[in-house]
Amino acid sequence: MLEWKSQEKAITQEEEGACKREIKAIQKELAALQQPIKQARLPVLLIFEGWSASGKGSIISKVISELDPRGYQVWSYADPTDEEGRRPLLWSFWRDLPPRGEMAVLDRSWYSRALTRLEEDRAAASGLVESINTFERQLGDDGYLILKFFLNISRREQKRRLEKLADHGATAWRVTDRDWRRNREYAARAEVTELLLQATNPVYAPWHVVQNEDKTRGTLEVLRRVRDALRAALEDGAPRPLPPEQVPWPLRAMPRLKDVDLSPSTTEEAYRAELKRERKKLQKLHSRLYREKVPVVLGFEGWDASGKGGAIRRLSWALDPRGFDVVPIAAPTPEELSRPYLWRFWRQLPKDGHVVLFDRTWYGRVMVERVEGLTPEARWSMAYDEINEFERELSRWGAVVLKFWLQIDQDTQLRRFEDRQSTPEKQYKITEEDWRNRKKWPQYELAVDEMLQKTSTEYAPWILVEGNDKKYARLKVLRTVRKALERRLDG
After folding, report:
1. Which helix (H) or strand (E) holds 297?
2. Concatenated DSSP letters for 232-294?
3. Amino acid 9: pLDDT
4. SS3 assignment, position 69
5. What SS3 state is found at 338?
6. Which has more pLDDT, 424 or 406?
7. Residue 200, C-beta contacts closer than 8 angstroms, at least 6 positions apart
8. Three-state DSSP class for 101?
């Protein structure tokens, strides 16, 4: 158990002096390591958890005291804000990830929030553990050095420190009713905490439980571990996870692109009538989504000139403009390239009750980056599982997730390309890259077929949209979204 029991003699004045001198020396060593960290583009996460009044703030101050503040960021995570409460558990922590070459120091983290949830619902444990382990494994795969510290003190020592804080006007505000309740329930919370720590203790991101009743010794232990881990990572790289066991994803059978029947079409009259009906239905459903706080994530992929923009526009016309966003995805910026691949998509997730439409998506990794050789095969081949894990998190959060592939044939694409070139107001839509991509149709078709086979899950299915007739394609998108929302809201 985490209940602290002293096995050491009280620190002598001489020992304390030696510890403080070593602390000072290590602080200077840490400062000297910042430039090598930057040059090696090593991203570092220092996570501090522990009991209330266990000394997290004091130790964090010691860790950063000599560092250049331009190379680190300290994040303090108290109870979720309203903004955070309306997004997935891990959203805030994805959002705040440091870029390569920098350090983030976390005063509490996803573990504190997971423990709060477990206090309310023990049945959520397995899902929370899986989400946390997946998150940290993905960071490890991207080269992040993750150091996790739990500062441990006894219930008696915690009570003494809380009383000391409460007795002084300048610090009394720091002690809450919840702190006192958790002190009274120390044994029960220690049991839950220990189970969580044991379940989230991989070799590449292990827990370091630091006995911090003596703050000088505790500080020295933390500083030694941080210094040693940074040195080792600079020499050998951050510890990398082993490949996870193959997950039997709940996949739906998908046809090959060449087998899709592209003959479906509609008349202008039927199109206008059904478009009007679908828009009215979606308007009502969007209002219900907001009231019932159901998030919706829609992704649009397809061949160049397949009609993604037109489908997105018709869908957006049916939605309340205050409740949706359209996110166009282009080549990643330097800021995005300095962080894990999924970072920019996590940041764009909607609040509950809102809708986000991605015009191109996280699937660029297994299409464009694969075909164009922008990402090594070892990384893009891992992305299928990473993407399924990402979408599983969205589903667990409660989101409706749909992904559309707009399929056309090469003759249709050629006609649309030529129409764009010959129409002045459409010429901005056609680029040399579009023509170059067209020459690689077979390679892209192979990549898309594999993507559809490996990532069309029950909770985030792919919908193939027959797109040779744009009007038919738009109606199919609207109908599919409307039916999915009805199933969710009425099911």
Report:
1. strand 296-302
2. HHHHH-S--PPPPPPP---BPP---GGG--------HHHHHHHHHHHHHHHHHHHHHHHHHT-
3. 66
4. helix
5. coil
6. 406
7. 111, 129, 132, 133, 136, 207
8. coil
Band (pLDDT 50/70/90 cuts) for residue 2 is low
Q: How confident is the model at residue 13 (pLDDT cuts 50, 70, 90)?
A: confident
Q: How far apart are alpha carbons 438 and 416 in whole angstroms?
A: 12
Res 123: pLDDT: 86
Type of residue found at 72: Y
Alpha helices in 104-176 (DSSP H): 110-120, 125-141, 155-166
First to last CA, the chain: 44
Q: Residue 389 carries which side chain, given as an amino acid letter?
A: E
Q: Rounded to 5 degrees, what angle do the CA atoms 489, 292, 326 make?
A: 85
Dihedral angle at the C-alpha atoms of 214, 218, 220, 226, nearest 10 degrees? Answer: -170
- Nearest partner of 142 among 92, 95, 204, judged by Cα: 204
Could you tell me which of 347, 298, 340 has the C-alpha nearest to residue 460?
A: 298
Q: By CB neighbour count within 10 A (0-12 exposed, 13-18 middle, 19+ buried), where does 424 fall?
A: exposed
Which residues sit opposite 145 in a β-bridge? 44
pLDDT in tens, 327-345: 999 999 999 999 999 999 9
Does position 300 have pLDDT exceeding 50, yes or no?
yes
Environment class of residue 401 by beta-carbon count within 10 Å: exposed (0-12), middle (13-18) or buried (19+)?
buried
Output the pLDDT for position 12: 87
Give the three-class secondary structure for 295: coil
